[in-house]
Request: fold
Amino acid sequence: MPKVLIVEDDQAMATALRDGFAYEGYEVALARDGAEGLRLAGTEAPDLILLDVMLPKMSGLDVCREIRKDRNPVPIIMLTARGQEIDKVLGLKIGADDYMTKPFGFLELMARVEALLRRTSGRSQRPETYAFGGVTVDFGSGEVLRKGRPLELSVRELRLLQYFIENRGKVVTREQLLDAVWDYDAAPLTRTVDMHVAKLRKKIEDVPSEPRFLVTVHGMGYKFTG
Reply:
């Protein structure tokens, strides 16, 4: 059974989440402050972490940053009550996989959790670094270099590149990319995928109009050949 670590200082919210996940068959570990959450992330080996942003002793953002600094790839969903865009963007940039803004419905949260666990089930097979055509990707830090120089990728572009690398040699459809890379509440169209792929090509390909690594498979989708 999968184990979820809930790091939440609000007693009512923590209890509701604990009971809900236990009812769904999950093993649950619970931390009431950031320092304890960071400790349990290492000792409990959870399959997923629900991490509140505002916590005593250590903020959720700092906990997430430290987890990723230790190269722990555990999926992380940030919980925020503030709904500020800067929290969401910063959380994703430092390594969170998704976020939920309070108040939220438990059914939606479970859908996010289950989808994230499906998407990240192959992370243990993912190399810590990957290199192709002068580009080097460090999955632990999220740093991308091209010919030795830092490459500025957006959070979405980095997610796209990671997904392509994890599925290298396979044809992936636009629908697969929407499910794997975009959030449920974003509801983007398939042309959004094409736009982001085009932007990514400009950064990783020598001749974006004649891509070597991120090629179009007409009528199907894309294939990464790096």
Notes: The chain has two domains: 3-119, 127-224. The helical segments are 11-23, 34-43, 60-69, 85-93, 106-119, 155-166, 174-181, 190-204.
